[in-house]
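Worked problem 6 (solution included).
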Amino acid sequence: MSSLDLTPLREAIDACDAELVQLLSRRKALTEQVGIVKQQTGAPLYAPDREALLIKARREQAREAGVNPELVEDILRRMMREAYENQQGKLACVAPELSPVVVVGGDGAMGQLFVKQFLRSGFEVRVLDKKQQNETNDILAGARMVLLSVPINAVEQVVSSLPELDENCLLVDVTSVKQAPIQAMLKKHKGPVLGLHPMFGPDISHWVKQTIVACEGRASPLCESLLEQLAIWGSNLVRIDAKKHDQAMQIIQVMRHLTTFVYGQFLAKQCHTLEELRSCSSPIYQLELMMVGRLFAQSPELYSDIMLAQFSDVEGLLASYQDTFALTLDKLQRGDKAGLIEAFSEAKQYFSDAASQFLSQSRGLLNKANDAKVLD
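Solution. The predicted structure is:
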């Protein structure tokens, strides 16, 4: 056998990989047991202090063993995500007073997500959608929580068409605008009202670390009970005034979706195929293409509604955006390098210390995007 023969080394690596698979299987079994205990005791799925200590300890262990701590943390975080997914079967219920729950629009994608989650926690769940319109009164009878998961442009009409609810029933909506829906619910219902905005789509595999914005309507212990239940599922809760929420969403959602929508249309009109662009793209542009493509893989009705719902409110922002683009174009046309550098510096001040943090975080994402490449 040649001293340069790779076969025995590759066989040894394969053996190590096989051992890793067996270790992962053992870890999976243990995390599933942890999930059962959490469900029985009402413990939250996500324990941030435990996660931070675990990662810190393993990173230190990696340094002592001569292994890259970043590699170990990447592996740990991926295993943790898998563990959270494995613990979704049965979840704790800490707000039984909210049962039965009625999900209006429960046949839709987001509605189904909430239905499934409440069922996993043992709630009685009823669905009220178009197919059940003739049974509206029976379905709503005795409901302790009514959750509206309907298109933005239908919320106010759906609220107004609801029969009178018990005053001890919590009325909630999960749309991406908050002021108008909350006002409609307050006008219709005498009991507790809460506005929620899940900052995720229906394709999530678990709720751990997923952000849900909560806007007060009419406060009640029932509102706090629902928020506690969301926290048990691992959600990251952000409480904010409805007006401030809508103003923030004008930038976070409407302007972002509008920009992505326009850029996707622009790409579709170019002479290059998507395959050609991807073949010579850097990892960061691969990620940008993914984000653009992600929008066009989803509901055109949803994104049209999001952009239209607040368009009149973002016209000023859009004008400012156009002005910024025009000023940048003017600098380019005049070859004004000093002006471009000055503009760059002004924007950099806005990001401040976060710029370095984003650089570090994005480096990990870019490495993963590059790792995922398949070469012919």
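Discussion: Strands lie at 101-104, 125-128, 145-148, 170-173, 193-198, 211-218, 236-239.
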